[in-house]
Amino acid sequence: MRLATWSMLAVSASCAPASGPEQGEPAGSTAQPLESNQYTVNFKTWSGHYLVADKGGGADLMAYSTQALEWETFTLTDLNGGSLVNGDTVTLQSISNQYGSALNGGGSTVRFTATAPQSWEQFTLQKLNGTGTVVSGDSIALKTVVTGQYLSAANAGGSTVSAAGASAREWETLTLGITASGGGGGTGGPDFGPNVFVFDPSMSAASIQSRLDQIFQQQETNQFGSQRYAYFFKPGTYNVDVRVGFYMSVFGLGQSPDNVTINGAVRAKADWFNGNATQNFWRGAENLSIVPTKDSNTNIWAVSQATTMRRIHVKGSINLWDNAYQNAWSSGGFIADSKIDNVINSGTQQQFLTRNTSLNNWQGQNWNMVFVGDEQAPSGTWPNQVYTVVDTTPVIREKPYLFIDTNGAYAVRVPSLRTNSKGTTWSAGTTAGTTLSLDKFHVARSDRDTADTLNAALGAGKHLLLTPGIYHLSRALQVSNPNTIILGLGLATLIPDQGTAAMNVADVDGVTVAGVLFDAGVNNSAVLLSVGSAANTVSHAANPTALFDVSCRVGGAQAGNATVCVTINSNDVLIDNIWLWRADHGNGVGWDTNKGINGIIVNGNNVSAYGLFCEHFEGYQTLWNGNNGRVYFYQSEIPYDVPNQSRWTHDGVNGYASYKVANSVTNHDARGLGIYSVFYNPVILENAIETPTTPGVKFQHMITVFLGSTPGAAINHIINGTGAAVTNQNMVSKSSY
Fold first, then answer.
1. Domain end call among 124, 149, 181
2. Which molecular function terms from Gene Ontology are attached (predicted)?
3. What is the pTM of this model?
């Protein structure tokens, strides 16, 4: 008698199948390398018997075996691509490469005779012990896509199997054993975990689009959620619409951006917020080309802070705001090492930085547009055109990127240092640099790695590839070896739970920290990220440490606390697109709730920053103590939530300047700065910028904007007592010094 109770299909890890005396490898069978969406699996029934493709294929599916040998081993292909999750459509192949077919689409036997997967050979995988990602050991059921009937082992195992089950009960419950996975590589590549989806051109556009839509629907509004995702597109052409939401990163895996072409879009819109993109944070796209076919053949990239577009070739036009809406603000943004064939229109963007990019035809301006090392940068006269143009980039190396080499193996390219550069690294040929095989990396996963395992890998000389997820740390990560690469995917997030730093980088050459979100824990950290232990005279000019696409957050997801987000003690450090944010909205937000004093303190000399976004801290947003500093593009909002003037005063001065250069500094170069206020209460900031008055300290193209409407609130001056006050909503003052 069958019990009418809910039943589970459990998946158990198992050893690789081995030959037994009752089975030999069927004639003509071959061991094929797994593709990125394929798994080697077995299925165990409720009674402990394994499903068997009798004779290795060419006969009916049975359930009589007590061991998982060759005939009990199947190749499961996930037609949705990427990691295996509840609800995916799958096919099964026997060891002889024949497909399992539910005759008539269901209601009868299952036979391994098909040579190609059609509708009868497709099954929906249901996870019975939860939702989300399916792993080895889970309880599952398989349902035909044609009739919706379940694979059912008679008497829960020991004899025949049909596709006639009406619901998932004991006879339909299977334990899934996963013994191998493609893991993103056609040669049995790395295990990137459940939050990385790898696509290749052999997959149908419909199946890829289904996965893209599924993730985007979850992430479109998920501003402070815990989910993180990355998409990898292998070299080839794809006809898909890649919509990019919160904590989503899109990567091409070619050696050149032109090796991966998306016909459709890689776009960030603001439908979720009625066209307002000022909160479209934490997302990016890298190393691919786009042929826009959506939105009137224009790629929409309506983004704000903590976003990136690198090594992108737009074979058409791009809008940097969501032009489907009127008065749709956006507050970005950053593009580097890219090429735009037609028009790039900034629209409502309040500010934007492009670096080493071929622009062709830039249109638009608002408050602060900065162009560094670009080809065909726009021209104009400040302040009528708010363009700050730096002809060449003084010193930079581009962010490392993952790609598949000519042997089909995953590797990381580390671009070379460039000085006085203009344009991209790739338009004229292969990007100069060195290549590291992925076996030199510890591929980290948040579901299994800890501070101890990550530090052990670092201590053993490994680089870190942080796959998407939230990593809770009991102590700081210690980066002590020169040239170490910490490369985050999908906004990989580090949270120091015990009030320590999240990461300490030693005063060594050539470290890279890229694509990481440092999120303050509830217990106050004195600093989240430190580079170098103390100011010194050691030069790293020939091989500088670099920070790419780094975010620090204090509050928003939780009531985090950090005295300082980033401290730079080493010399010659490169900063390329960094957002330091004490949250003004979200969870755990308030003057005495998410405490943060400084966004960044720079003690090292010869530090260069291209794209420094720093907002809402309770003291100086930026405190620069080192000499020969360079900042090209600065965006800052001073704190909204100052309770009253008495709590925001020092040394007889009202407020704390957003940008403070120490009195001991003799040389500093800052260009293209926008500092804005939205005071909730009637408080005054005396100076947006404070610097020593000396010929070597130079500021070019500064702007203050009053965004609020609180009577009695104001920014009195732009810099050192000069520049007109801003006191009314949307009032703007511009100056050079």
1. 181
2. actin filament binding
3. 0.79
DSSP states along 235-279: SEEE--EEE--TTEEEEE-SSSGGGEEEEEEEEB--GGGTT--TT
Residue 549 pLDDT class (50, 70, 90 cuts): very high
Does one domain contain both 133 and 66?
A: yes
The residue type found at 676 is Y
Contacts 24+ apart (CB under 8 A), 202-205: 202/35, 203/37, 203/79, 203/81, 204/79, 205/238, 205/239, 205/240
What is the predicted pLDDT for the residue at 11?
32
Q: How far is CA 36 from CA 116, 194, 204, in A?
A: 19, 12, 14
pLDDT of residue 32: 56
Helix (H, G, I), strand (E, B) or coil at 439: helix
* Residue 233 and residue 100 in one domain: no
Residue 269 φ/ψ, nearest 5 degrees: -110, 180
CB atoms within 10 A of CB 31: 8
pLDDT for 610 equals 99
Distance CA 362, CA 571 (A): 35
Domain contains 420: no
Lowest mean pLDDT among 130-134, 199-203, 397-401, 415-419: 130-134
Instruction: Say whether both 132 and 211 belong to one domain.
Output: no
Q: Quick one: tokens of 169?
A: 């009960």
Q: Hey, is 622 helix, strand or coil?
A: strand
Q: Name every residue whose Cβ is closer than 8 Å to that of residue 474 and which is 6 or more positions away in sequence.
A: 450, 451, 452, 497, 498, 500
**294-339, pLDDT tens digit by residue?**
999 999 999 999 999 999 999 999 999 999 998 799 999 999 999 9
Q: Give 27 or 557, the one with higher predicted confidence.
A: 557
483 and 382 within one domain? no
Q: Under a CB-based contact definition with an 8 Å cutoff, are residues 73 and 97 in contact?
A: no
- Asked if 177 and 209 sit in the same domain, the reply is no
* Cβ-Cβ contacts under 8 Å for 97 (sequence gap 6 or more): 29, 30, 32, 57, 75
pLDDT value for 145: 96
Residue 632 is assigned to a structural domain of this protein: no
Contact by Cβ (8 Å): 176, 43: yes
What is the extent of the structural domain holding 584?
438-568+575-597
Count up the domains in the chain and report the number.
3
H or E stretch including 13?
Answer: none
Question: Hey, which residues are catalytic here?
Answer: 637
CA gap 701, 507 in Å, rounded:
33
Q: Which of 232, 241, 283 is nearest to 260 (CA)?
A: 232
Q: What is the pLDDT of residue 494?
A: 99
Using left for φ > 0, alpha for ψ between -120 and 50, and beta otherwise, residue 688 falls in alpha
- Are 235 and 170 part of one and the same domain? no
In a domain, 23, yes or no: no
The token pair at 218 is: 């979850």
H or E segment to which residue 458 belongs: helix 451-459
> Please, what's the b/e burial string for 423-462 (b: 16 or more CB within 10 A of its CB; e: otherwise)?
bbbbbeeebebeebebeebbbbbbeebebeebbebbeeeb
Domain boundary at 331, 362, 396, which? Answer: 396
pLDDT higher than threshold 70 for residue 684: yes
Read off the pLDDT of residues 150-186 as tens digits, 9 standing for 90 and up: 999 988 888 889 999 999 998 999 999 887 776 533 3
| 165 inside domain | yes
Say if CB 280 and CB 306 are below 8 A apart: no
3-state secondary structure of 207: helix
For the chain, first and last CA: distance in Å? 88
Contacts of 718 (CB under 8 A, 6+ apart): 675, 687, 688, 689, 702, 703, 704, 724, 733, 735, 737
